[in-house]
Amino acid sequence: MQIPKINVPAQINKVKSISQDDLIKAINTCYEKTMQGLPGVKSSYDLADEYLAKYHDPKIAAERLINAQVKKCTTSGFVTGLGGLLTMAVAIPADLTACIFVQLQMISAIAVLGGYDPKDDEVRTVAYICLTGESVSEALNKMGVKIGQKVGTKLIDKIPGKLLVAINRKLGGMIFTKFGTKGVINLCDLIPVVGGVIGGGFNYATTRKIGKIATKEFLK
To answer: CB of 76 within 8 A of CB of 10?
Structure first.
């Protein structure tokens, strides 16, 4: 599933020096890499299996996983190395790339803990919604998507393909709004982002919030 292109005000690109195409490519690339793994970095499937084998209960495993991902944000060596592994594939600062990867790896691993396959389009959609820091119901409400039943991952599984396409189209705009304006600071707290320099460190609370949202959506 590819996030559709959206029109971006010129001043946003100028301020952040990140184009819409670069950001969309980075998010899609990072998501794919979470499923494939990187040298020295486990795939979301292996990560989920590791935590489930250790803690047995999916919810406890998810909680411990979230804690570990938040700690990764505090390790400059890990962030630098991870960003370096991904910079050849994307054209955005290494620290922002690492932030996106860490959060998507956390989300997709939690999806696996819940019995879902991150490769499925519906699961990817929910994962991207979680990345915005919104629950599925909150995000769909903001998008103006009206569904009569209680909204959740189980319902997403049943949404017709055409409606899923419409959601993804609107989701693309929501994601870029989060990252392209305030999102770089809200999700990663990187100041400045140009040049891959950590200026303000990661926003740990937001990473934890995203993990809790993913747990709610995939481990109901």
So the answer is: no
